[in-house]
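Example 3.2
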Amino acid sequence: MSTTETALLRPGHEISRVIKGGWQLAGDHGAVDRSAAIADMEAFLDAGITTFDCADIYTGVEEMIGEFIADVRRRRGAAIADRAIVHTKLVPDLGLLPTIGAEGVEAIIDRSLKRLQIDRLHLVQFFWWDLAQGDAVEALQVLRRCQEKGKIANLGVTNWEYDNIARFTDAGYDVASAQVQYSVLDRRPENGLTDWAAAHDMQLLCYGTLAGGFLTEKWLGAEDPGFAFENRSLIKYRLIIDEFGPWPLFQELLAALKAVGDRHGVSLSSVATRWVLDRPQVAAAIVGARYARHLPKTLEVFGFAMDAADRAMIQAVLDRAGGPDGPVYGLEGERAGRHGRIMKYNLNTRPDDSTLGTVDG
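Structure, written as tokens:
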């Protein structure tokens, strides 16, 4: 088995370059076998996938990871349990932004600590739905005070372009990472964020690397499904494919990824993940593998290297892509637009929060 690659976000904060994502373990993504998902986290840890991504708004996921860590601590001791690095997020509900105060922000941190059953959060990734509402700078100041109290090790941000992040780094905050959507389909971080990150000692943690499963063999040769999905994740990434180009161009991309994968004896999804890992300033890719049976394919990414011919084959398709264009999260940040209408904005106070509409409604 190939060696798992690691990256150093900050001194003492080493992560696996593939992070086990948690969004697929929340609601809206189909049935989850909770006990199996918790038990299988140990297999990922033992395989070198030491880093786990979650959020205060991923219903039930912090608790699941907490149960996993506590169980490993009981059975195998603190030294093994402490190998698990947890990245969570703090995402106050849109409806609370005008009124949430310091106590409310710190209460979210305390709740995450309790759910995860750890003494300090390794990384808290901050997001504020609307910077025109409330006081996001003061909220991040609360997180820095939580750092001083030992509740948080490092701070990151989520879904912000560099001009928004600069508001905080200019105010003296150390932002170790930005979690953004980044894939061979969605290269918006290359529109300025990666260069800015290189100049400000910040690394990227990338989700959407497999576009919710679209960048897999399952979709190679498939007819355009339209938007008839019950899974919001698939709707989200089907919209990204629309921005990328027509369905036939997406099929050409899958074929190119498959051809590269065949050369190296790996899946096209491993090629898609490797492509992201090889981009500047990328520390890790977040992959939504739910169960241990996905581990062999997940670990493939560490067992091969793409050469210039591989990259050129993929780039030939990318050169004909239409988009997505603009800043990271720019499309999604337009709440009345096609991408924004499928989001849920108040999942802390209302786990059953509805979307603002449909793709076309």
